[in-house]
Design goal:
By secondary structure, the chain is α+β, with helices and mostly antiparallel strands. The chain has four domains: 27-136, Gnk2 domain, C-X8-C-X2-C motif (Killer Toxin P4, Chain A); 150-251, Killer Toxin P4, Chain A, CATH 3.30.430.20; 333-417, Phosphorylase Kinase, domain 1, CATH 3.30.200.20; 424-668, Transferase(Phosphotransferase), domain 1, CATH 1.10.510.10. 36% of the residues lie in helices and 20% in strands. The strands form eight sheets. Strands 1-8-11-12-10-9 form a six-stranded antiparallel sheet. A six-stranded antiparallel sheet has the order 2-3-6-7-5-4. It is globular, with a radius of gyration of 28 Å.
Length: 669
C-alpha cells in the first residue's frame, strides 16, 4: 500500500510539473491543447477548395503517413507540378517508434489542415514535439530555417546557477556535435550530465536529416544561444523548437526513451566485415584493370585522329598551369586553422550550400575570408578545381582575389581577400540596409560590375563565362566597390569560341537566360542577361522572384517591361531614391531591359554596355519584350513548365553569406 501511494504521489508531482511548463512564443504561434502551429508564416497565400493544389496536398499527406517502408521517422515527399506542386516534411522524434510515428503524423495532419484551412503553407508540432509536420508550395528540402519558432520553459529555477549553466552548456554542445554527425536518415542526439545534489540534466537535440552537417550544427547553435535570451534563462527545463531543428532539456526528469532507429554502421571490424571487404577488392581489381585497358585503347585511337594534337598539347599546358598554381598558392591546413582560431563560431561570416565562410588573419596581419567546403556540399571537386585554376589567373579591381587554397585529406578550403561589406543582396533587398545605397553608390556598383564582366569576356588573357552572376555573388569592399565572386560554375572559352552547350544546367533561376535554362546554350550573352536582371534589381530594390500588387504577383522582368511599355517607368524605381538623377536612373532601366531581351542577338555586348554607362550622349535602341514575360492581368505563364528548379539559396535569410555559392539544377520531366 505504501509503494502504491508513493507511485501515485510521484505521478501526481510529475503531472503538476508538466502543467506548470509555460509556452513563450517568438511569432504569433497558435496553441490548441498539445499542438503548436503556424499558418502561412511566409505569406504564401491561400489555395482554393477542391483545386488541383488541394487535391495534391491531400494525396501527398495520405501517402506520407501510409508509407510503411520508412522506419527512421523522416519523410520528405512532393506531389504535383509547377504552381500546384506541394512539398511536405514529416519528422518524428528519434525515440518514437515507426507505428507511433505514423499515428502522430496522422493526428497532426488532421489538426493542421483543420486549423490552417486553405493555407498553402503550414507547420505544426504535436504531443510535446513527438512529431513535426509541415507543407508548402515552395521547396523546403535541405533548407536550414530557424523560423517560425516557439520557446517553452519550466517555471522552477535551478540552483547553483553557475555550475548548472556550465554543465548544461557542455551537455548541449556535445549533443549538437552528435546530431550534426548523423546521416541522411537520422540527425539526433540524447544524453545526460550529473550536477550537484544528485541531480541530472537530460538533453535532446534533433535536426531534419536533409540538412548538411554544418547546417544542423548552425541551427542548433542558434537555438542554444537563445537559452539565456528568450527561452529559459536559469530554468530547470526548456526547449527551443524550429522548423529545421529542436532542442530540449529537463532536470531530474527523463523525458525521452531509447532511440527507435539506429543506422547500420558504414564499416565493420568483424571477420565477416573483413571478408566482405576482401571479396569486394578481389572483384574490383580485375574490373578496374579491364576498364583501364579499354580507356587506354580509346585514348590511343582518339589521339591518332586529325586535330587531336592541338587538344593534347593544350591539355599538357593546362596540366603545367595546375602544377605552377599548386606550388605557388597552396596553404597548409594548420596555417588556415590558426588564422581562423580553429574555425571558431565568432569568426564565422556566413553559411551557404557549400559550407561555411570564416574570417581569418594570417601571421603577417592580412585579413582573409576562408570558404570551407563541407563534405555534404554539392560544390564538389570539379567546381573547387575550376575556381582555383581560373580565379588565380584573374586580376581586376572588380573581381574578388583568390589568395590560395588548401587540399588536405577531406578538407577543401579556398582563401580569398577579405571583403568587409558582405554582398549586394544584404543591402539592396533589405528594407533597412537599402537606405545606405544612394543612387551614386548603386550606379558605382552597376558600372564596376559591368567592367568586371567585360574583363572576363574580353580583356583578360582567358575568355570566361561566369554562369552564376547574381546579387549574392557581388561582394562590396569598404568603399562599396563591387567585386564579382564565386567562379565554381565558370566556363573557359578558347579564342575563337562564341558559345557552348551543356547537359548539366547550373546556376540560379531568375538570373538564367532562357536559351541556357531550356536548351543548355551559354555564351557571353547569357552573362549579359544575368547582368540585366541585376541592374533592374539594383534600381528597383526588388528581387527578381516576384512583386506583389494586391492579389497579383509579377516577376521583376514582367513588372519592369509593363511599366516601361505603359509609360510609367517611375513605378520601377525604389521609392527611397530621390529624383535628382532621374535621367541616369531611366537610362539604367533602359539598359537593363535591353540586356534581358529574349532574342540573344538583340542583347548588347558588355563592351557596349560599359560604353553607354560612361557616355550619356549615345542613343539606345528600343528594347523588345524580355524573356519569360508574364502578363499578370491575363495570367499568361512563361513556357517553363517542362523544368523543375531546385535551388539551395536561402533567399530571404537575414544571414547573408560572404562568398556564397549556390547551384540550381533543372531536370526535364
Amino acid at each position: 500500500m505504501v509503494v502504491f501511494s508513493s507511485r501515485l504521489l510521484f505521478s501526481f508531482l510529475c503531472n503538476i510539473l508538466l502543467i506548470t511548463i509555460s509556452i513563450s512564443q517568438v511569432s504569433a504561434a497558435n496553441t490548441t491543447q498539445d499542438y503548436q502551429y503556424f499558418c502561412d508564416f511566409t505569406n504564401r497565400g491561400n489555395y482554393t477548395a477542391n483545386s488541383t493544389y488541394h487535391t495534391n496536398l491531400n494525396t501527398l499527406l495520405s501517402t506520407l503517413i501510409s508509407n510503411t517502408e520508412i522506419d527512421y521517422g523522416f519523410y520528405n515527399f512532393t506531389n504535383g507540378e509547377n504552381t500546384d506542386k506541394v512539398y511536405a516534411i514529416g519528422l518524428c522524434r528519434g525515440d518514437v517508434k515507426p507505428e507511433e510515428c505514423r499515428s502522430c503524423l496522422n493526428g497532426s495532419r488532421a489538426n493542421l489542415t483543420q486549423l490552417c484551412p486553405n493555407r498553402k503553407e503550414a507547420i505544426g508540432w504535436y504531443e510535446n514535439e513527438k512529431c513535426m509536420l509541415r507543407y508548402s508550395d515552395r521547396s523546403i528540402f535541405s533548407l536550414m530555417e530557424t523560423g517560425p519558432a516557439y520557446y517553452a520553459h519550466n517555471t522552477i529555477n535551478a540552483t547553483d546557477l553557475d555550475q548548472f549553466n556550465r554543465s548544461l552548456s557542455s551537455l548541449l554542445r556535445d549533443l549538437k556535435s552528435q546530431a550534426a554527425s548523423g546521416d541522411s536518415r537520422l540527425k539526433y542526439g540524447v544524453g545526460n550530465i550529473s550536477i550537484p545534489d544528485d541531480k541530472v540534466i537530460y538533453g535532446l537535440v534533433q535536426c531534419t536529416p536533409d540538412l548538411s552537417g554544418s547546417d544542423c550544427d548552425d541551427c542548433l547553435a542558434q537555438s542554444i544561444e537563445r537559452i539565456p535570451i528568450d527561452c529559459c534563462k536559469d530554468s530547470k527545463g526548456g526547449r527551443v523548437v524550429r522548423p529545421s531543428c529542436s532542442m530540449r532539456f529537463e532536470t531530474s526528469y527523463h523525458f525521452y526513451g531509447p532511440t527507435a532507429y539506429t543506422p547500420p554502421p558504414s564499416t565493420s571490424t568483424t571477420s565477416e566485415g573483413s571478408n566482405t571487404i576482401t571479396i569486394a577488392i578481389a572483384v574490383a581489381v580485375p574490373v578496374f584493370v579491364v576498364v583501364a585497358v579499354l580507356i587506354f585503347i580509346c585514348i590511343y585511337f582518339r589521339a591518332r585522329k586529325p586535330g587531336k594534337k592541338y587538344k593534347t598539347q593544350q591539355q599538357e599546358e593546362h596540366d603545367d598551369d595546375e602544377i605552377d598554381i599548386s606550388e605557388s598558392l597552396q596553404f597548409s591546413f594548420n596555417t588556415i586553422r590558426e588564422a581562423t582560431d580553429n574555425f571558431s563560431d565568432s569568426n564565422k561570416l556566413g553559411q551557404g550550400g557549400f559550407g561555411a565562410v570564416y574570417k581569418g588573419r594570417l601571421s603577417n596581419g592580412q585579413e582573409i575570408a576562408v570558404k570551407r567546403l563541407s563534405a555534404d556540399s554539392r560544390q564538389g571537386d570539379t567546381e573547387f578545381k575550376n575556381e582555383v585554376l581560373l580565379v588565380a589567373k584573374l586580376q581586376h579591381r572588380n573581381l574578388v582575389r583568390l589568395l590560395g587554397f588548401c587540399l588536405e585529406g577531406r578538407e577543401k578550403l579556398l582563401v580569398y581577400e577579405f571583403v568587409p561589406n558582405k554582398s549586394l543582396d544584404y543591402f539592396v533587398f533589405n528594407q533597412t540596409n537599402r537606405a545606405q545605397l544612394n543612387w551614386e553608390t548603386r550606379y558605382k556598383i552597376i558600372g564596376g560590375t559591368a567592367r568586371g564582366i567585360l574583363y572576363l569576356h574580353q580583356d583578360s588573357r582567358l575568355r570566361i563565362i561566369h554562369r552564376d552572376l547574381k546579387a549574392s555573388n557581388i561582394l562590396l569592399d569598404e568603399e562599396m566597390n563591387p567585386k564579382i565572386s564565386d567562379f565554381g560554375l565558370a566556363k573557359l572559352f578558347v579564342v575563337d569560341q562564341t558559345h557552348g552547350d551543356t547537359n548539366r544546367i547550373v546556376g540560379t533561376y531568375g538570373y538564367m537566360a532562357p536559351e541556357y535554362a531550356m536548351h543548355g546554350q551559354f555564351s557571353e550573352k547569357s552573362d549579359v542577361f544575368s547582368f540585366g536582371v541585376l541592374v533592374l534589381e539594383i534600381v528597383s530594390g526588388q528581387r527578381n522572384s516576384g512583386i506583389s500588387h494586391g492579389e497579383n504577383i509579377e516577376d521583376l522582368l514582367s513588372f519592369a517591361w509593363r511599366n516601361w511599355r505603359e509609360g510609367t517607368p517611375r513605378n520601377i524605381v525604389d521609392p527611397t531614391l530621390n529624383n535628382s538623377f532621374q535621367n541616369e536612373i531611366m537610362r539604367c532601366i533602359h539598359i537593363g531591359l535591353l540586356c534581358v531581351q529574349e532574342n540573344v542577338s538583340a542583347r548588347p555586348t558588355m563592351a557596349s554596355v560599359v560604353l553607354v554607362l560612361n557616355s550619356h550622349s549615345l542613343t539606345l535602341p528600343v528594347p523588345l519584350a524580355p524573356a519569360f514575360y508574364v502578363d499578370s492581368r491575363t495570367g499568361n505563364l512563361p513556357d517553363m513548365h517542362l523544368w523543375e528548379f531546385n535551388s539551395r539559396t536561402t533567399g530571404s535569410s537575414e544571414y547573408t553569406s560572404i562568398n556564397e555559392a549556390s547551384i540550381t539544377e533543372p531536370y526535364p520531366r
